[in-house]
Amino acid sequence: MPRTRVRLRHNAASMPHNRATLPAALPLFPLGTVLFPGGWLPLQIFEVRYLDMVQRCHERGEPFGVVTLTEGHEVQQPARDGSPGFAPEVFSDIGTLAHIETLERPQPGLLVIGCRGGQRFRLQRREKLKHGLWMGDAEPLPADPPMAIPDDLDSLRELLLDLGRQLHAQHPDAFRHPLEGEHWQDAGWVANRWCDFLPEPNEVKQRLLTLDNPLLRLELVGDLVDKLPRA
To answer: How far, CA to CA in Å, does 181 sit from each of 14, 40, 100, 169?
Structure first.
């Protein structure tokens, strides 16, 4: 694979959290994005159902679960048929814990937070509370085992590192992970960071998230990178 520049979307990332336990009742945040372990997720919180949830999670040092919407909107919408209540929200069973690292209150009724992706989980049960917040019973999924990047895929690491240097020089906050470290030799971490950037539909990214084999994920990422427009 030749080393060259590619045009990608910005979505910063860093090292994943590895937590072995989950809250007994996990608050859920259905979003129109896929969060990968180690990924960086900035959010502006203004809906009442999430303001209280985020505040509690921040105070307790607990994560919430990010799950990807397959139907519905991030902000609650009225029912389409005019009946009381809200339009349905359907989301994936497999998601990622979001650990709050930064929180600001620029004005009343608004929280601006930055979250880091942690452990993957699988929902066993879900329930929507009266005020609209989703809660779930979830089991943790295993973290990627450390796995060296094979020689034939090392160009993916080099290309991503070049991209990180470019973004860091142009927008220091756009690439939120160190440009040096052992994680750059890890197949799962490099695959996940590519998944943060790749301009693929959520359906594709969700399939990559569900893979337990980090080397297979990196190989599939390589196929997608090969199809990117070159600049």
So the answer is: 11, 18, 23, 18
The answer, as to whether pTM is greater than 0.90, is: no
Backbone torsions φ then ψ of 44, nearest 5 degrees: -110, 120
Q: Per-residue pLDDT tens for 202-225?
A: 999 999 999 999 999 999 999 999
Cα(156)–Cα(138) distance, integer angstroms: 33
Single-letter code of the amino acid located at 153: L
Q: Which is higher by pLDDT, 177 or 144?
A: 144
Residue 138 is classified by DSSP as E
User: Distance between CA 31 and CA 73 in Å, rounded?
Assistant: 8
Which of 207, 196, 213, 67 is closest to 144 using CA atoms?
213
**Residue pair 102/80 in contact by the 8 Å Cβ criterion:** no
Taking alpha carbons only, the member of 81, 93, 98, 84 closest to residue 38 is 98
Could you tell me which residues come within 8 angstroms of residue 154 by beta carbon, excluding any fewer than 6 positions away? none
Q: 218-231 burial, b for 16+ CB within 10 Å, e for fewer?
A: bbbbbebbeebeee
pLDDT tens digits along 92-145: 999 999 999 999 999 999 999 999 999 999 999 999 998 889 999 999 999 999
